[in-house]
Each structure stands twice: as C-alpha cells, then as structure tokens.
Amino acid sequence: MTHDPMTAPTRTVIVKAGYRRERLPGNILIMRLLDSQRESLDAWYEDCCKCMSAWRPGRRLRYLHDIRHAEYITPYATERVIRVLAKMRQLPVTDGRGAILLQTPALGSVLGTFFKRRTYANWQVQFFNDEHEAIRWLEW
Question: Fewer CB within a 10 Å sphere, N or C end of the chain?
Fold first, then answer.
C-alpha cells in the first residue's frame, strides 16, 4: 500500500492556531506545527494528549510530526515535548512507528536523546528530511 504523500487523499481533522492534524489512508496521522508560537504548541500538545487518551492496546500506531516550520528550541517548546514524551511512555503500544520531519538534520541528533527504546514496547521513532520517505517508512 504505497501512497504518494503529495497526491494521496488526506483528511484534515483539526486546524487550530498554527497547528493542523491530517489523516492519510492506512490511518497515518500527520501532526503539523506550522509555526513555533505558544498557541500553536499548545494546540499540538492538547491534540497529542487527546489522541493518547483515546489509545487502545493492540492498535497499530503510525504518526508523523512535521516540525519543519517550528524548529526553534525554546524552554516552552522543550517543556511541551518533554510532557508529551512522558505521556507516550505510558501508552500500551505493540506496533508503533513515529516519524519526525525536520528541515535541519542536526536537530534530529539533539531530539534523539529524548527517545529511549523501551524493552516492553515495539515503538520506533526516526527522523526524516523528506516527507515522501517518511510516509513510505510509516506504511510498513
């Protein structure tokens, strides 16, 4: 099931402040931060919490965080990311893949320090600069 991310039908689920969540075929969630304003970060954080609270064991998880337009590391952004990661660690995921789409490859090595492999969960996170490549990896 290979889709061209530029032509695959997406459904926009949420638009709030500088944040948008989309859904691709195959139940791939795309969470796009369109800027690094506090309101956008709050909308992203609230949506992540909403998605996580609805999660049920045994479901396949595929998501793409597109942060290409919000790559500014600020104390507020860092705090939001750390809180989301803390909540993610509690999710009962047995088949999870997360892609993070970046403009700056070096940022991936900084962010990678936040992601620790959990022995009790099959959850992989990778960093990408190309959206097509990220979605192809998520489709597995």
Answer: N
- Domain of residue 44 covers 11-138
7 pLDDT more than 70? no
Higher pLDDT, 56 or 111: 56
CATH number for position 105: 3.30.750.24
Q: Can you tell me the distance from the alpha carbon of 103 to that of 105, in angstroms, rounded to the nearest whole number? A: 6
Q: Among 24-33, 41-50, 102-111, name the one with the lowest average pLDDT.
A: 102-111
CA distances from 130 to 79, 101, 112, 137 (A): 26, 7, 17, 11
Does residue 3 contact residue 135 with C-beta atoms inside 8 Å? yes
**Which residues are 64's β-sheet partners?**
30, 99
Q: How many structural domains is the chain composed of? A: 1
How is residue 109 written in tokens?
A: 């090595």
| Residue that the structure tokens 């989309």 belong to | 22
Rounded CA-CA distance 138/131 in Å is 11
Best CA proximity match to 76, nearest among 17, 36, 33: 36
